[in-house]
Amino acid sequence: MPLKEILEITWLSLAVSGTAAAMAMIVGLPVAVWLYLKPFPGKRLIAALVNTGMGLPPVVVGLLLAILFWRTGPLGFLQLMYTPAAMVLAQFIIALPLVIGLSLAALEQVDSEVLLQARALGASSRQMIVVLLKESRMGQLAAIIAAFGGVISEVGAVMMVGGNLKGYTRVLTTAIVQETRMGNFRSAIYLGLILLSLSFAVNWFLTSLQQKGVNRWKGPRWK
Fold first, then answer.
1. How far apart, in whole angstroms, are the C-alpha atoms of residue 184 and residue 193?
2. Quick one: pLDDT at residue 80?
3. Alpha-carbon distance 193 to 62, whole Å?
4. Burial class (CB in 10 A: 0-12, 13-18, 19+), 182
5. How far is CA 29 from each of CA 24, 66, 97, 217, rounded to the nearest angstrom?
6. First to last CA, the chain
7. Are 64 and 75 in contact (CB under 8 A)?
8. Which of 83, 198, 209 has its CA nearest to residue 152?
9. Which CATH superfamily does the domain covering 3-211 fall into?
C-alpha cells in the first residue's frame, strides 16, 4: 500500500474519531451535569438507558443509520450514506453514552462538602457548576479517553455507513479488514500497528493531561 494512501487513511481515522469524541463531550457533559443537578421523575430510567447505551453494539448503530440514510429511507434526501459525515455521526452515537455515563459517575464522586462550602460562600448556580466540573475534571478526561478509544477501534458502524470507499471513507479499521480479506496480511499488520500507535499517542496525551496537577498523597510511607 502506497505511503500517501496510508497517510490519508490515518488522517481520516483521526479526524472522524476525534470529531466524534469531541462532539460527544460537548453534548454529553452538559447532559451529565443536568442529570446530576436536576431531580425529576424518570431520572433513574434515563440513567439506566445511558448505562445500557454504554454497551451499545456498533453494528446496531450502523444498521439503524443505514436504514435512515438509505436512498429510500426517511432521511435519504440528505445523501449522507457512504460519507465521512455519516461515519462521524455513527461514532458520535457510540461515544455519547460513554461520555454521559462516565461524566455522571465522576460528578457523583465529588465531595458534597466542597459544594456546600461554595454555596456558603455565596456562589451562584454558574459558579457552582464551574466548581463541580473543576473537582471532577480527572473523571471528565477519563470519559474522553474512553470515548475516543471506543470509536477509533470501531469497525462495524463505519463499514456500514461509510462503505470503505478508497480515498474517501476508508479508515484504518476498515482498511485492515479489506487487506485481510485480500490476503495481504503484512499490510494488515502494518495498518494494525499504526492504529495501535495512534490510539496510544492520543491516549498518552490525554492521560498526561489527566495526571498533570494531581495531588499526590504525602502521608507516611510503608516500610
1. 15
2. 94
3. 25
4. exposed
5. 8, 27, 10, 29
6. 56
7. no
8. 198
9. MetI-like (1.10.3720.10)
- Please, where are the H alpha helices in 54-135? 58-69, 84-108, 112-120, 125-135
User: Where along the chain do its domains lie?
Assistant: 3-211
Cell of 210: 489527566
State the maximum Cα–Cα separation within the chain, in Å, rounded to a whole number. 71
Please give the angle made by the CA atoms of 83, 88 and 89, to the nearest 5 degrees: 95
How far apart CA 189 and CA 199 sit, in angstroms, is 15
Which residue bears the cell 450514506? 81
User: Which grid coordinates are listed for 94?
Assistant: 457510540
Rounded to the nearest 10 degrees, the angle between the axes of helix 125-135 and helix 112-120 is: 150
C-alpha–C-alpha distance, residues 61 and 184, integer Å: 29
Give pLDDT tens digits for 62-79: 999 999 999 999 999 999
What are 139's three cell numbers? Answer: 473523571
Mean pLDDT of 5-31: 94
For the chain, what's the residue count? 223
